[in-house]
Design brief:
alpha+beta; 6 strands; 4 helices; 156 residues
Length: 156
C-alpha cells in the first residue's frame, strides 16, 4: 500500500464519521480531527477564521445549526501524502437540516491539509466552498451567516 493509500485508509472513515456527527449537531468528533498546534486556518463555506480557540468556537456553533443528517459522503478528487504532510481534495455531498430548515442536499468542494502529529493525521487547514453551478448551496449556507441577528463566532 502506498503512503497516500495508507493516509486515505486512515483518514476517510474518521472524516466521514466526524462530519456526519457535525451535521447531526455533535462537533466533538470534528474537533478531535483537528490539530491544536498553530498555525491553523479554516476557510469555511460560510465563514473564515484562524487559530484553535476561534476554530473550536466555530465548530461548536456549527453543531448548533446542523441537524437531521441523512447522508454524508466524500468523493475524492486527488490526495497525496509525503512524510508528515498530506492533502485531500474532494467533493463533499451532504443532506442535512441547516438552521431548522427541512433537510436538503448540498455539495461543497473542499481542500484539506493534514499534519502528522504523534502518529495521527490532524487537520491544519480546510477550505470549502459551494460548487460553481450550485446556487442553491450558496443560498442554504447563507443561513449560517444570517442567524442570531447576523452574529457569527470569530472574525468572518
Amino acid at each position: 500500500m502506498s503512503e497516500t493509500e495508507e493516509f486515505l485508509a486512515s483518514v476517510l472513515p474518521r472524516l466521514i464519521a466526524a462530519d456526519t456527527a457535525l451535521h447531526n449537531g455533535d462537533a466533538a468528533p470534528r474537533k478531535a480531527l483537528w490539530s491544536t498546534t498553530e498555525p491553523l486556518t479554516l476557510f469555511g463555506a460560510a465563514m473564515m477564521t484562524t487559530g484553535w480557540p476561534e476554530i473550536e468556537a466555530t465548530f461548536d456553533w456549527l453543531g448548533t445549526r446542523f441537524s437531521d443528517c441523512s447522508s454524508f459522503d466524500i468523493e475524492v478528487v486527488a490526495a497525496g501524502a509525503s512524510g508528515d504532510l498530506a492533502y485531500l481534495v474532494a467533493f463533499e455531498h451532504t443532506t442535512a437540516s441547516i438552521g431548522g430548515d427541512p433537510p436538503a442536499p448540498y455539495s461543497l468542494r473542499v481542500t484539506t491539509i493534514f499534519r502528522r502529529e504523534a502518529g495521527a493525521w490532524k487537520v491544519v487547514h480546510r477550505h470549502a466552498d459551494p460548487m460553481p453551478d450550485a446556487a442553491s448551496t450558496g443560498g442554504r449556507l447563507s443561513t449560517l451567516r444570517n442567524t442570531d441577528g447576523g452574529e457569527t463566532p470569530g472574525p468572518t
